[in-house]
Amino acid sequence: MKTVVACGALALDVRRIAERRRWDLKVVPVSALLHNHPDRIDAAVAALSAAHDVVAVAYGDCGTGAALDGFPRLEGEHCYDVFARAEVRAALEEEPGTYFLTDFLARTFEHTVWRELGLDRYPELREDYFRHYRRVMWLAQRPMPATRDAAARAAERLELPLVVREVGVDGLERQLERLLRPTAAVTPEAH
């Protein structure tokens, strides 16, 4: 069975796409908390790649400084580009101070951002970390009420207005298909 090493922030979506498309694929996640230590991502991916028959890496660059470019990986700087490259570019052109949330980041904001950055212990750092942001944009893959509420709570924590863009997972799916097409893991399947 072919394996995709996936960022923990993308692993659930990669798995859902693979199941829906009936791709014979194993998804091995890497902790999403490594985004707070991008210098460690390439070693984690390399270790998993050595242990599995890896055909693709479901990561953008994610602050690694091109360290993942030796692997067949998703295009883009980060998962925001993977899900919605055009929407992200347009949002930043409209308001450069846009803080993006994906479904994963909205759901896990309290842990992956607030606590990991120490804001639960030092709330005064919020201004240092986020002073240049003017809004939060949730790039909704699946706009469910619970995730919408989580995105609203994250925006409230940051004391910023929330904007919602429904983007789905088509961008991720197209990139996965491009990466996996040469392998036997992908069979043509209608959506």
Structure, described:
This protein is an alpha/beta fold and 191 residues long. It folds into 2 domains: 2-75 and 170-180; 80-166, no CATH class. 43% of the residues lie in helices and 17% in strands. It has helices spanning 11-21, 41-51, 79-94, 103-115, 125-130, 145-158, 170-180, and strands at 2-7, 25-30, 54-58, 98-101, 135-140, 162-166. The chain has a 3-stranded parallel sheet with strand order 2-1-3, with helices on both faces. Helix 3 crosses helix 7 and helix 4 runs parallel beside helix 6. The two termini are 22 Å apart.
Beta-strand content = 15-25%
> Would you identify the regions where 5 or more consecutive residues have pLDDT less than 50?
184-191
Name the strands of the widest sheet in spatial order: 2-1-3
Termini, distance in Å?
22 Å
Shape: globular
- Strand runs, count: 6
Helix-strand pattern: EHEHEHEHHEHEH
Per DSSP, the total helix count is: 7
Helical fraction equals 40-55%
Topology:
Elements: E1 2-7, H1 11-21, E2 25-30, H2 41-51, E3 54-58, H3 79-94, E4 98-101, H4 103-115, H5 125-130, E5 135-140, H6 145-158, E6 162-166, H7 170-180
Parallel strand pairs: 1-2, 1-3, 4-5, 5-6
Helix pairs in contact: 3-7, 4-6
What is shown here, in short?
The protein contains seven helices and six strands, in the order βαβαβαβααβαβα. With 191 residues, it is of the alpha/beta class.
Q: Notable features of this structure?
A:
alpha/beta, 6 strands, disordered C terminus, three-stranded parallel β-sheet, 7 helices, globular
